[in-house]
Specification:
CATH class of the largest domain: Alpha Beta
Largest sheet: 7 strands, mixed
Helix content: 40-55%
Strand content: 15-25%
CATH architecture of the largest domain: 3-Layer(aba) Sandwich
Structural class: alpha/beta
Shape: elongated
Number of helices: 12
Number of strands: 9
Distance between the termini: 57 Å
Order of helices and strands: HEHEHEHEHEHEHHEEEHHHH
CATH superfamily of the largest domain: Vaccinia Virus protein VP39
Strand order of the largest sheet: 4-3-2-5-6-9-7
Bound molecules: S-adenosylmethionine
Number of domains: 2
CATH topology of the largest domain: Rossmann fold
């Protein structure tokens, strides 16, 4: 059964009386080459967690690696479809659940024991950022995360300091992972086609974060404040984000070796860490 064929997809939809839900981000992938790239980037030598299997086009490829695949799907109408499309595999388990309401750490422990796993998915666009944030912030035992997302989101996550796309999500992802863009995927590679182009993003999860900081929570508070008002200087942003007088904040930024008049979007991870550490030493939180 070729799940990349629009005719097959339409036949399955008709057979199961399935209507595609825009609200659930149901744009199914039809490109074999892109599936190859996802599986290659994930470099699967361990179990895999998939989010949103849909009709199972990617799930099938993941199953063919022979490793255990656990797929979490919110739409209960898809369960009988997946029983049909994945009937030949005995290394897959479908869990009917909302990934955002799932205790993923517990799921990994139950399904995979102590091994590190890969996450592979063509993510539903309406919750791309919350899913990625959840996977990264929960410090799960992950080797890598290979996901299809909107092109713009992939570019933001990979953006370097000084670029217009660079923001808090770039810092978050680059703190815990080494992200890179695998390939751009045009809207026409999906059925039904979404409104924008997509991209496959690979994030290799680091053993330890890419920068050392005395207090991680404070580090992210500094980052969040620095990007809260993009047109303002770092000094103004941090003065709004922290309850200390402007003069003190100005001095502390200088102690960190940074020019207070700069904009936050120019700072790299190491510079945010320096500021957070100086704030920590000064008891600013
Ligand atoms: N993997 C399939 C493919 O590549 O063709 C389908 C991808 S489609 C972009 C996203 C899938 O995620 C849909 O099957 C949708 O029902 C499912 N989904 C949406 N929200 C979800 C959630 N909160 N938790 C789990 N699955 C979700």
């Amino acid at each position: 059964m070729d799940l990349t064929s629009p005719r097959v997809i339409k036949d399955i939809a008709a057979r199961f009386d399935f209507g595609f839900s825009k609200g659930l981000g149901q744009n199914f992938l039809l490109d074999d080459g892109v599936l190859d790239k996802i599986v290659d980037a994930a470099d699967i030598d361990c179990g895999v967690l998939e989010v949103g299997p849909g009709f199972g086009v990617l799930t099938k490829r993941l199953c063919e690696t022979g490793k255990k695949v656990v797929s979490v799907e919110i739409d209960k109408r898809l369960i009988p479809v997946l029983d049909f499309t994945l009937a030949e595999f005995d290394n897959v388990k479908i869990i009917e659940k909302d990934i955002l309401k799932t205790d993923v750490a517990e799921l990994i422990k139950t399904e995979f024991g102590d091994e590190k796993i890969s996450v592979a998915a063509n993510l539903p666009y309406y919750i791309t950022t919350p899913i990625i944030t959840k996977l990264i912030e929960e410090k799960l035992p992950l080797k890598n995360i290979v996901v299809m997302v909107q092109r713009e989101v992939a570019e933001r996550i990979c953006a370097k300091p000084g670029k217009k796309d660079y923001g808090a999500i770039s810092v978050l992802c680059q703190y815990y992972t080494n992200p890179y863009l695998v390939t751009i995927v045009p809207a026409g590679s999906f059925y039904p086609p979404p409104k924008v182009d997509s991209a496959v993003l690979c994030m290799e999860v680091c053993e330890t974060p890419n920068v050392k900081t005395k207090d991680e929570k404070l580090f992210f508070k500094v980052v969040k404040a620095a990007f809260a008002q993009r047109r303002k200087t770092l000094l103004n942003c941090l003065s709004s984000g922290f309850s200390a007088d402007k003069q003190t904040i100005c001095e502390l930024i200088s102690v960190a070796g940074i020019e207070p008049g700069i904009r936050g979007e120019k700072l790299g991870l190491a510079e945010f860490a320096k500021i957070a550490d100086v704030f920590f030493d000064a008891g600013i939180e």
